[in-house]
């Protein structure tokens, strides 16, 4: 059973990331389902985001019905997955300062290219396990990008990959 306080904190977390609350039935059902197993707000919020894939997809679909997005290259995504550690059902990215700087610089450069083409917002799609961690880093460094996971894009969506972001691991 989900308390009023838990529901309020999940709604606040969704609003913080600009997720509309218009499908309240799906949100409340999701909270009730997931809250049986955990009270972790971050984990519950990620599960709700996945259930709202249709709403999220509509938010970022252009007038032509296409979502334009960036990805991480395979090596970068693998590095981020390796650097993630699970704690209380939520994965946290354990990056060193150099890796964070490389991630911010590479993403900023690619985002600037996209914005110069007149495409906004800049959307990056990542593995669901690292979405929250990547989004938190981008927010901390005031990077104006939308970070979505594969689970948040409706399976019927049409998308165009505009490029891929690559960082190098200094230890390799």
What does the secondary structure layout of this molecule look like, with pairings?
Blueprint: H1 4-16, H2 24-35, H3 41-51, H4 53-60, E1 66-72, H5 74-82, E2 84-87, E3 90-93, H6 97-116, E4 122-126, H7 131-140, E5 145-149, E6 158-165
Helix pairs in contact: 1-3, 2-3
Describe the structure.
The structure is a single chain. This protein is an alpha/beta fold and 172 residues long. The chain folds into 2 domains: 4-51; 61-165, FHIPEP family, domain 4 (Rossmann fold, 3-Layer(aba) Sandwich), CATH 3.40.50. The chain is built from 7 helices and 6 strands, in the order ααααβαββαβαββ. It has a 4-stranded parallel beta sheet. The longest helix has 20 residues, at 97-116. The radius of gyration is 16 Å and the shape is globular. The mean pLDDT is 93. This is Flagellar biosynthesis protein FlhA. InterPro entries: FHIPEP_3, FHIPEP_4, T3SS_FHIPEP. One of its GO terms (biological process) is bacterial-type flagellum assembly.
Question: Main traits of this protein?
Answer:
Rossmann fold; 48% helix; 172 residues; four-stranded parallel β-sheet; alpha/beta; two-stranded antiparallel sheet; 19% strand; 2 domains
Instruction: Please work out how many helical segments DSSP would assign.
Output: 7
Overall shape: it is globular
Please give the share of residues in helix: 40-55%
* Biggest beta sheet attributes: 4 strands, parallel
Organism: hydrothermal vent metagenome
Pfam family, one: FHIPEP
Protein name: Flagellar biosynthesis protein FlhA
InterPro entries: FHIPEP_3, FHIPEP_4, T3SS_FHIPEP
